[in-house]
């Protein structure tokens, strides 16, 4: 989960963003490469005029590469997307849509003290003609001694048919300094 709030000094509107998710991978018996996936994600974004996006998805995937240095996983399936938008007009804009999803995730680890993780997910809509959304994450982490680490991350959410008055994309740069127990 990640929560970000920015209050500009010039008196313009606050920028708020909250995202979180919970997911499960269940590996098929005797095969550590094929898995089923179930996941729920939430997003709130003032840039997208989005009060809430609740996305529930399920599908199957395969680790094309899985060894002690890297993982490359591909997955696909179906998703249900509920969105509640904030707007200043007389009507409320809500969207419910069925979507397909295709995901690719690449992790590099065991490179000394460096780890890399990148993920892209595409969501072509089944119920809204021509709508396409995507999510992209990139994280690089360096571990100093004594389990102290720094993580640099970038997240991008894109929608080719945003609600009126909203941006088509929302992004976050994040820096984390932490300690692993």
Helix/strand order, N-terminal first: EEEEEEEEEE
**Count of individual beta strands:** 10
Mean pLDDT: 89
Distance between the termini: 19 Å
What Rg, in angstroms, do the CA atoms define? Answer: 18 Å
Question: How large is the count of helical segments?
Answer: 0
Q: Proportion of β residues?
A: over 45%
Strand order of the largest sheet: 1-2-3-4-5-6-7-8-9-10
Q: Estimate percent helicity.
A: under 10%
Q: What is the makeup of the main sheet? A: 10 strands, antiparallel
Quickly give the structural class: mainly beta
Task: Name the poorly predicted regions.
Answer: none
**CA-based shape:** flat
Summarize the structure in words.
This protein has 181 residues and is mostly beta strands. Helix content is 0%, strand content 71%. The protein contains no helices and 10 strands. The chain has strands spanning 2-6, 15-27, 34-45, 50-66, 70-85, 93-111, 114-124, 132-143, 148-159, 169-179. Strands 1-2-3-4-5-6-7-8-9-10 form a 10-stranded antiparallel beta sheet, with no helix packed on it. β6 and β7 form a beta hairpin. It is flat. It starts with a strand and ends with a strand.
């Amino acid at each position: 989960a990640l929560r970000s709030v920015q209050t500009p000094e010039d008196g313009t509107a606050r920028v708020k963003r909250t995202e979180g998710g919970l997911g499960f991978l269940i590996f098929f018996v005797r095969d550590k490469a094929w898995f089923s996936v179930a996941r729920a994600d939430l997003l709130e974004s003032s840039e997208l005029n989005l009060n809430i996006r609740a996305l529930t998805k399920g599908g199957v995937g395969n680790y094309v590469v899985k060894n002690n240095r890297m993982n490359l996983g591909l997955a696909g399936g179906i998703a249900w997307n509920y969105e509640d938008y904030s707007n200043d007009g007389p009507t409320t804009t809500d969207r419910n849509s069925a979507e397909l999803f295709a995901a690719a995730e690449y992790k590099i680890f065991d490179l000394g003290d460096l780890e890399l993780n990148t993920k892209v997910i595409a969501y072509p809509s089944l119920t809204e003609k021509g709508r396409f959304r995507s999510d992209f994450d990139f994280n690089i982490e360096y571990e100093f001694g004594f389990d102290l680490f720094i993580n640099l991350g970038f997240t991008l959410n894109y929608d080719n048919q945003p609600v009126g008055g909203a941006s088509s994309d929302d992004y976050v740069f994040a820096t984390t300094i932490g300690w692993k127990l």
